[in-house]
Each structure stands twice: as structure tokens, then as C-alpha cells.
Amino acid sequence: MENETIVMSVTATYEKGICPHCQKESESIHSHYQSHPADMPIAGNTVRLDMTVPRFFCDNEGCKATTFAERMFPFIEPYAYGTKRLAGHQQRVAFFLGSEAGASLLSIMGMPVSSDTLIRLIRKTPEAEMETPKVFGIDDWSKRKGQSYGTILVDLEKHRAIDLLPERSAELLATWLKEHPGVEVISRDRGAEYIKGTSCRPQRALPMGYSKICLRS
User: Fold this and answer.
1) Number of domain units in the chain
2) Which of 4, 16, 107, 111 sits at 20 to 30 Å (Cα–Cα) from 92?
């Protein structure tokens, strides 16, 4: 244990590896290298893994790589400073609290990380596939109050925002709706642009401020 950091020695026992460049298998060990990724804390103490990992010769004469290190998938990403499970916890905190507050809390929890790293973890998260909602909410949001506005689109059944449009215009809204068929009912304010973007004769009675979607070709 070093200054409230628990150090664990880990040695990879791979007898052969697969070259990440040409996918050829090799059993010829060139040497070993050291890696020191962080891992999940124990009893509030940070954890560091002192890992010894083999490096192999690539036996493929046509490959650009002479040697390669064995990848530790799915335990750790190449060139990462921490394990994947640690990064997963840090990422979840970043989504809940943001970068600055998240970094402060994670430091107390024994998972220290910079705010910039938390932003990178958020940005590298793949976007979930969006299903077009049937009940749809439209409102504006201010980029610069009184001067510049965009449009926020909300799934009213799942209670979550699904997209942001850079403008508050009928044309942009109508284009988005054409590209995402399936919307049946729209809740909107009385703004002229939103009325133009969604206007049609309702096929059934709807409360004021709602529209039955009808797209013109």
C-alpha cells in the first residue's frame, strides 16, 4: 500500500497473441512491458494495477508491425489509464453531475479523474438509437436570450428530450418531421413558426395547443 493507494501486481499468462494489424497468431514472445492502470477503489482507497504483459514478434513478413503487445480486451482499452469497469463508473457519474462536480465527487470516492477526461468519456458514448415518438412536444430554447433561439423536441410519453434544432423555423421543423415519420400528436405553443411547421386539418378533436400531424409533399 502506497499513500492510501492499494497496489496489486498482475501478470498476464498469455502463451500466444494475435497481431492487431494483420490478425496473424504468434507464439514468439519478444519481451514484457509494464502497465499501471487504475481500477475500482477498495474501502475508499484508490487501486493501481502493476501489470506485466507480454509483447510478441509478428511472424508475418508482410505486416508493418515487427512486434505487438497482447491486448487486454475486454478488461482494458489500449492506451487507457484505467480499467473499463472504472471508466464505466466515472462515465455514469459524469452524466449525472457533469464534469466539474463529477470530478470532485469521484475524487472523494477513490476514483480520481480530471474534468476533461469526464467530458471525453461522455463524448465517446455511442448515441442510442432513437425511436420516433407518437406523442411529441415542441418548444423553443434560448441560445442567447432575446436574440437567438432553437427548437427542443421532446418525447412526451417517455418524458425526455430527443433532439435540438439550431433554429426556430417552420421549414426546419417540417423537414425533421418528414425524416422521422410516425408522429401522431404534437403539443406546441401558439408560435406562428410551429403552427406552420405542423399545420393541417385535425382528423379528430384535440385540446388547444395540440396538432394532428399532416405533412405536405
Assistant:
1) 2
2) 4
Distance (Å, whole) CA 39 – CA 46: 8
Identify the H or E element spanning 31: strand 29-35
Same domain, 158 and 190: yes
Per-position pLDDT tens, the chain of length 217 = 666 899 999 888 888 889 988 999 999 999 998 889 999 999 889 999 999 989 999 989 899 889 998 887 678 888 888 999 999 999 999 999 999 999 999 999 999 999 999 999 999 888 777 788 888 888 888 887 777 888 899 998 888 888 888 888 888 888 888 888 888 888 887 778 887 887 753 434 445 455 444 444 3
Residue 113 cell numbers, joined: 479523474
In a domain, 58, yes or no: yes
Domain hosting 200: range is 135-212
* Single residue among 123, 150, 177 that ends a domain in this structure: 123
Beta pairing class for 38-42 and 29-35: unpaired
CA 184 to CA 189: how far, in whole Å?
17
Task: Please check whether residues 17 and 93 belong to one and the same domain.
Answer: yes
Query: Are 28 and 105 members of one domain?
Result: yes
In angstroms, how far is CA 116 from the centroid of its own chain? 14
Residues in the chain: 217
